[in-house]
Amino acid sequence: MPRRFCLVLVKPSHYDDDGYVIQWLRSPIPSNSLASLYGLAKDCAERRIFGDDVSIDIHAFDETNTRIRPDRIATMIEEAGAGMVMLTGVQSNQFPRALDLAKPLRARGIQVGIGGFHVSGVLAMLNGIDADLDRAKAMGVSLFAGEAEGRLEETLSDAYAGTLKPLYNYMDDLPGIEGTPIPLMAAERAQRTAGRTTSFDAGRGCPYQCSFCTIINVQGRKSRRRSPDDIEHIVRVNYAQGLRSFFITDDNFARNKDWEAILDRIIYLREVEKFNLGFIIQVDTLCHKLPNFVEKAARAGVRRVFIGLENINPDNLLGAKKRQNKITEYRTMLLAWKKAGVITYAGYILGFPGDTYDSIMHDIDVIKRELPVDLLEFFYLTPLPGSEDHLKLKRVGAWLDPDLNKYDLNHICTPHPKMSREEWDRAYKDAWQRYYTIEHIETILRRVASTKANASNALFLISWFTGSINIEHIHPLEGGFMRRRYRRDRRPGMPIEPAWLFYPKHYCSVVSRLVRWTVLYLKLRRIYLRIKKDPQRYAYTDLAMTPVQDDELETHELFNSGAAQAYVARAKHIKDAQDGHAHEPAVAAE
After folding, report:
1. What is the DSSP string of 371-412?
2. Residue 319 contacts by C-beta under 8 Å, 6 or more apart in sequence?
3. pLDDT tens-digit map of 562-581
4. For residue 95, which of 14, 199, 161 has the smallest C-alpha distance?
């Protein structure tokens, strides 16, 4: 039997509209799936699961910042005498690329497994019926549904014996994660992300029922958590290898029942042991109602927070089962984060059934004027495999784009009931331009500066967002620093360009984009410096920054629509009933 087992973990990227792999010198968001699997694999190696005389060599790669060469990976495994490739954390839009990486590996006889949200979501909602899963099975790829804690050893043992099963389905048995091996990313891998950022999950699962979400159907609606001891251990281990910036990947950290104990541990590390730590978290729109949550998050070093705002139309939110979003709380919540000096991102979905081009443009104008959100990210309403929306459309036989590569929230994948494809596409593109005008960028920076928050960080983020859309023509969440393209890494079926055409075009494009990036940054930096030198910058205010008042239903256009007024009336009726002030029906005078 071989004395060495080579395990290669790969987080695939996906293709752009020209068929090239989306890849950067520095990518923005680290993969928690990759970090989690690396930590579990490292534990297996340390426990010598194949025996004391067999070592496990682990290699982890994120394709968003590393070129993947299947031929070289195959050679590594062949030289070791045994091994396998695990394509991990594969989302629906990454599945075609995952299969394209698997194909040459399988041709060399290399064992390959694919796990992640697409496999798990399709198993959970569609009983595994999916053309792309069928392609994987036909290639001899093993599929893994569910989570790997407590299960990875079985998969690796089967691979060591050369007896991988076609399917490992653990969707009906989601594991506890307290005390399990921690997510870990080697420092040299984390250095390939912007800001040397790494990631971990403090918990999994979400209690809400949003119809467009896959989290609840893949990770469940019951919260499973790491302990505060686990989180402290994660932070200390990563800090020891020079990593100080973390993305906590919980879909909603505010619903982690141990949030306060976790934040208290991190506050201790920052304030007593003087750890220089920074965090990005994701929360819901009611997080501010948790006593001390916003204040302690800021003390723990939360510098940026992503909020699932999604929409300002109550009918749209109700139709998507996002009942936890209360438009009457939006300003209170955002002002709380403003007061804490934390930069806010908000996701905003375009294409709910009631949306039209005009209504979308109107709502963006209202947000700019009345909500103190810093960065707004736009997405198409997309029926992701694994979501309730996708299942419903499947059941009624609606048209769904067969190309999974487009299920990245940045492409139209199904018709809209009111807008033509052209109108919906125009609404998406115009939304970015309408929000990120020079005038509104200055407003955002003035709002940030007035609260003594990190305006230079806001400048960087706004530059990143506007440049990603206008220069790279890519969504900011898929953006990065210095785009890489490799001539032969093009999607199968699209022609490989000749060297004499590809390289001059590519390098001219790189230079052109760098010049445009520089011009953009200097233009926005001039605005930033003007604000920084303004002695009245702390006195700045506008409608969005004013404290919440009792008369906002009359003074803010956010509440002017029929849907908003009906929502407010319902909310008031419910509150009156809860307070014991419900009115008796009027009786006609005799």
Report:
1. ---SEEEEEE----TTSHHHHHHHHTT----S-GGG-SSSS-
2. 211, 352, 353, 354
3. 666 666 666 666 666 666 65
4. 14
Confidence of residue 587 (pLDDT cuts 50, 70, 90): very low
183: DSSP letter: P
CB atoms within 10 A of CB 334: 22
Residue 494: partners with Cβ closer than 8 Å, 6 or more residues away: 18, 19
Token code pair at residue 238: 């990563």
Separation CA 102–CA 140 (nearest Å): 9
Q: Is 142 in a helix, a strand, or coil? A: strand
What is the rounded distance in angstroms from the CA atom of residue 334 to the CA atom of residue 196? 28
State how far the Cα of 197 lies from the Cα of 402, in Å rounded to an integer. Answer: 34
Residues in the chain: 590
Which amino acid belongs to residue 308?
A: G
**Helix, coil or strand: residue 34:** helix
pLDDT in tens, 396-451: 999 999 999 999 999 999 999 999 999 999 999 999 999 999 999 999 999 999 99
Residue with the two structure tokens 């109602």: 289
C-alpha to C-alpha distance for 447 and 458, rounded to whole angstroms: 10
365 DSSP 8-state letter: H
The strand pair at 55-62 and 4-11 is best described as: parallel
**Residue keyed to tokens 């509209």:** 17
Residue 487, token pair as written in the block = 């001539």
- Assign 191 a pLDDT band (cuts: 50, 70, 90): confident
Backbone angles phi, psi at 313, to 5 degrees: -95, 115
Neighbours of 107 (CB within 10 A): 11
Tell me the pLDDT band of 529, cut-offs 50, 70 and 90. Answer: very high
CA–CA distance, 380 with 181 (Å, rounded to integer): 36
Show the CA angle centred on residue 216, arms to residues 215 and 217, nearest 5°.
95
H or E element: which one contains 460? helix 455-467
